[in-house]
Amino acid sequence: MLTTILWFIVVGAVIGALARLVVPGRNPIGILLTVLVGIAGAILGGVVADALGAGMLVAFVFAVVIAALGVAALTMMHTRGRGRGHGWRTRRRSY
User: Fold this and answer.
1) Which residues lie below 8 Å from residue 81, measured CB to CB, with a gap of 6+?
2) Fewer CB within a 10 Å sphere, N or C end of the chain?
3) Burial letters for 24-45: b for 16+ Cβ neighbours within 10 Å, e otherwise?
4) pLDDT on residue 93
5) pTM of the model
6) Nearest of 20, 56, 62, 57 to residue 41 by alpha carbon
7) Residue 91's pLDDT band (cuts 50, 70, 90)
8) Which of 19, 8, 14 minimizes the C-alpha distance to 48?
9) Buried b (16+ CB within 10 A) or exposed e, 65-74
């Protein structure tokens, strides 16, 4: 069981690092946070797959998918509100 969790940590770290490389331009979050979210998502995916009674291959796929979704969600949360046309308007219009 401990080796399985260690594998999920490694998978999550790799997913976080790859996500950092794939996103073009300036990233609003640090690499450490990206890797930590990847690790947390991979462990969560592995635990969910284990609770469902899935095999190791399905657990690996769950870990990768949930880690990637977690990193993507975190990146989207931090990029929302930046740039033109996103987020709340801060200026009031005067008529």
Assistant:
1) 87, 88
2) C
3) eeebbbeeebbbbbbbbbbbbb
4) 59
5) 0.70
6) 62
7) low
8) 8
9) ebbbebbeeb
On the 0-12 / 13-18 / 19+ scale of CB atoms within 10 A, 62 is: buried
- CA nearest to 36, candidates 54, 53, 13, 58: 13
User: Cα separation of 61 and 57, whole Å?
Assistant: 6
Q: And the tokens for 65?
A: 């998918």
What does the block give as tokens for 35?
Answer: 């890797």
* Angstrom distance (rounded) from CA 79 to CA 75: 6
